[in-house]
Amino acid sequence: xxxxxxxxxxxxxxxxxxxxxxxxxxxxxxxxxxxxxxxxxxxxxxxxxxxxxxxxxxxxxxxxxxxxxxxxxxxxxxxxxxxxxxxxxxxxxxxxxxxxxxxxxxxxxxxxxxxxxxxxxxxxxxxxxxxxxxxxxxxxxxxxxxxxxxxxxxxxxxxxxxxxxxxxxxxxxxxxxxxxxxxxxxxxxxxxxxxxxxxxxxxxxxxxxxxxxxxxxxxxxxxxxxxxxxxxxxxxxxxxxxxxxxxxxxxxxxxxxxxxxxxxxxxxxxxxxxxxxxxxxxxxxxxxxxxxxxxxxxxxxxxxxxxxxxxxxxxxxxxxxxxxxxxxxxxxxxxxxxxxxxxxxxxxxxxxxxxxxxxxxxxxxxxxxxxxxxxxxxxxxxxxxxxxxxxxxxxxxxxxxxxxxxxxxxxxxxxxxxxxxxxxxxxxxxxxxxxxxxxxxx
Amino acid sequence: xxxxxxxxxxxxxxxxxxxxxxxxxxxxxxxxxxxxxxxxxxxxxxxxxxxxxxxxxxxxxxxxxxxxxxxxxxxxxxxxxxxxxxxxxxxxxxxxxxxxxxxxxxxxxxxxxxxxxxxxxxxxxxxxxxxxxxxxxxxxxxxxxxxxxxxxxxxxxxxxxxxxxxxxxxxxxxxxxxxxxxxxxxxxxxxxxxxxxxxxxxxxxxxxxxxxxxxxxxxxxxxxxxxxxxxxxxxxxxxxxxxxxxxxxxxxxxxxxxxxxxxxxxxxxxxxxxxxxxxxxxxxxxxxxxxxxxxxxxxxxxxxxxxxxxxxxxxxxxxxxxxxxxxxxxxxxxxxxxxxxxxxxxxxxxxxxxxxxxxxxxxxxxxxxxxxxxxxxxxxxxxxxxxxxxxxxxxxxxxxxxxxxxxxxxxxxxxxxxxxxxxxxxxxxxxxxxxxxxxxxx
Lengths: 442, 442
Prior knowledge:
The structure is a homodimer.
Chain A: H1 15-32, H2 37-44, H3 48-55, H4 63-72, H5 96-101, E1 104-108, E2 111-118, E3 127-134, E4 157-163, E5 166-172, E6 175-181, E7 186-189, E8 195-199, E9 207-213, H6 220-228, H7 230-235, H8 243-258, H9 262-269, H10 273-280, H11 288-298, E10 316-319, H12 353-356, H13 421-426
């Protein structure tokens, strides 16, 4: 990986902030344990002056002291180790040239399989994106092709954004699947699902942005589960075979935690005991009114009684480019007020390039190059510079389905924004200026 | 604090597990960053053999290596530091005698103010309970009494369980409050709310179990917020002045994060745009059907659109003993099947002692001491041994209100379990055996 934007080896990022927060953490941990500075110093075998020095930002972090604290106090060393802010100016930039120079080729099964390139990443986020090019070319969609080499899955969730003729293979419940992906197609996959990628031809570029992340399960939760061990970890996985089963197990977990008999919860909530038992047994779900009443009775928020609704099928959620939603932001017709960063006359908005590659040219091309709605004074914007060549690509997307999100399908609908190539050509939006330039768009 | 159950200083708890997990963490972190063992070793300036040695459980954790990794890779040292499992046998025990011997007296304002005693605690949980005795005696309820010395509040939430004539003072939005607490009364308070305790007389014991905890905001979240700084941290606190305001801000945050115009979300969900704008502006809340439709449109779980419903008033939630709910577990009439740990004939169940102290003696006293529903073979049960003398206490609880949980009050109702002293005396429950001995009760 490129070490651009990193200080020279030996000087970790944000060392001053790290030292300052390390002192504050020690002070805070001692306070949480009802230690005065004097008693904390005594516990740690330090003089008052030495202890005070450790709280000061000038003092370097001491692993020995953290280890001593983790011995005499009921805490862990990591509780005393701060994170490093490697993004003091609000952005981290990795230029396309740096990304290209970070390229590394890895082999699988004795053949060159992937080329990896670094992308921007930060110590403040558990996201681990990478640019990955498929070097193994196949001429079929057979998951057992000799040039298809699977991984064993990994701990992280993964979004994959495809460019070119990419085959995506994934295994779920022992069954192998293959998806023919094209530019703009994307997929989301669950942890520990084995998967792999190949290219369908050698002429076109075939690569992905693989955006892996840990979600709520990395960090503290993962450390705690690791210490508790796999058997205990299993117990935290409530049944989610169905919405009713998930809600039943959730309800049972609250009743058990409170040692509250179901009959008592029924009486407190006004829900008939037989009906509540049916919910707890996973036979049916609570109505909204019952959620409200039961949450009040158990002194929870209603959201606590609603399980997460998984929408993956066979461990994945697929969004083909050809049928994905599209929209404009801000919407056509938004007042063109301009903003301090970009005058109203300057911020033309054209259809997104990945849209225009799949449609006829817009009938009203901007008279100057379309620019992102961003401050002109900053030199950190990487919108174009950091985009790998060909992203978004020039390959027409194929596929006829909308996002494969069966749980959502009944209520999801086509956007009214121009979505077919013909519609894009026929109804060009009015180009408003970036009236919400400073908002979350972008 | 007592160091009972801790290994001698210098040998932190669970050192073998710590080393094993440290190696696994390094391996996992390298994999997340798409490093093979060889490329990881090269990044870290190690030979392949040295790198392999660091992955092995025999190798001690190396802070220097963690620091090197945090320099060349976009991660933090703490990401490589495991937690310690100080509870390998499932329980941590602190005997009453050990607790008493841990007593420390702290002064405030030049007078002895609190006596602290340790209670059981673990590195695996962010709970920080302490036994605290009030040494400052007051004869009024004046928060400005010269013997009342406030703290500045702290980062942790706090449950407080009272024994004896305890005055609880708390400050919220600049206003001082005093609560006259008695045995069995309990209170929950928000972080950073200044508070303090005194005793109302010197004759009776007056102490509390102060159970402080960090909730979801300690650990990773707190470290991340600390690195981002207070201004950014403020931005994460969505308006919760009302349920409608909280839901409106929550909805806006999803729309902003998706760069999805409200009009588009309205169309996708079938909710009229004017109506959805009213929700986003905090003027009204979504109906359950609208939550379902909007969650589908935004590809969220319905729970994601429901804010936490705070139920604290002036930063606290108070539960007077005299009006708190009571119930039996298992409920009277449960089949007396007994269990392997406790034969059906042995596990008599009498009304909880804190109930019987406030009522006439039960008409059917057990013929042998009532025992907790627990295995007889274990020596780790502390149900009676660890309970401080006088807990539950003998002081009659006063107060006439139910738990002060206004948000819940409209729907919360009295339990059908015997609740008044007379009722307890009149309707003793049938003593069933512990048919759910191994369940979550207790």
